[in-house]
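Lab notebook, bench 4. The sequencing result for the construct came back, and we need a structural model before the next group meeting so we can plan mutations. Quick request posted to the team channel:

Model the 3D structure of this chain.
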Amino acid sequence: MKRFIEIVMVLLVIGLVSGCADTNAPNYQYMPNMYEPVGYETYQQVDFLPSGTEAMTPPENTIHRGWLPYEFANDMEGKEMARLQESPLDSLQMEANLAKGKELYDIYCAICHGNQGKGQGTLVKREKILGVPSYADAARNITEGSTYHVIYYGLNSMGSYAGQLNFEERWQVSEYVMQLKQDLIK
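Done. Here's the predicted structure in token form:
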């Protein structure tokens, strides 16, 4: 009988404790700084560092790893100068570059420009955007360099894809666009 009373008392205590506990949050926080985030701005002065020390901005005239500066300005003069530029990619790997360029073109460009570069992509057919010309238009006079320039900066209603495509990928897409243009002219 004594054992039965002890078991009932233990169950009663457990029931009271669990009934009063908040299941959404712990009752006691032993080390709150371990699991409650404290946000710091990158370039602000903070209390726990000696005065005068903070995160420093990068030195002038430096570029971050994986990014190459583009030498032409975002204007018509820059585009005309870029028109003369040729692809710096290895010409011995032309097939691989065109295959990768096609893959990237299908992902980023075909929705507007169409799979064959005729300017009849899905968004144009659904009349979501208008005025996408064909690569075969004589007035376009596109080159690898001017295509790269447009991918880098954007033109008219087309935005920049410099954030989505790296240096090599932009050139691969440019080479593939020139291949589409040649196929359309034939």
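Residues 2-20 form the longest helix (19 residues).
Will bring this to the meeting.
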